[in-house]
TrEMBL record:
Pfam family, one: Adenine_glyco
Protein name from the UniProt record: DNA-3-methyladenine glycosylase I
UniProt xrefs under InterPro entries: Adenine_glyco, DNA-3mA_glycosylase, DNA_glycosylase
GO BP annotations listed: base-excision repair
Coiled-coil spans in chain: none
GO molecular function, one term: DNA-3-methyladenine glycosylase activity
Source organism per UniProt: marine sediment metagenome
Length: 121
């Protein structure tokens, strides 16, 4: 495809053919999930019951790289044709988007994030 070749010559992005091709196939898989579930958000939040997972780690070193939920989501995404969606990257996504509150208990953001989760419907 000409668009993929153009992307592979763009110095502002990672020009790995597998990753560029996976971005294209992931976009197609995303649209299928969106059509099936109404929104991608509905699909992905279903893996945590619609509410952020609350953890209570005391030290950064106690925070895991994966969880049973990220394992399940990763596995399901792969079954749906997504690429480069291992459990570690999925767990990082879950942390970044608030699906899991991994702020350590002494962090100034721990309690506010926990309170936000209680208000999520």
């Amino acid at each position: 495809d000409k668009r993929v070749e153009k992307l592979l010559s763009d110095p502002s992005i990672v020009r790995n053919r597998l990753k560029v091709n996976s971005a294209v196939s992931n976009a197609k898989a995303f649209l299928k999930v969106q059509k099936e579930f109404g929104t991608f958000c509905e699909y992905i939040w279903g893996f945590v019951g619609g509410k952020p997972i609350q953890t209570s780690f005391k030290k950064d070193g106690d925070i895991p790289a994966t969880s049973p939920e990220s394992d399940a989501l990763s596995q399901d995404l792969k079954k749906r044709g997504f690429k480069f969606v291992g459990s570690t990257i999925i767990y990082a996504h879950m942390q970044a988007t608030g699906m899991v509150n991994d702020h350590v208990t002494g962090c100034f953001r721990y309690k506010p994030c926990k309170a936000l989760a209680r208000n999520k419907t």
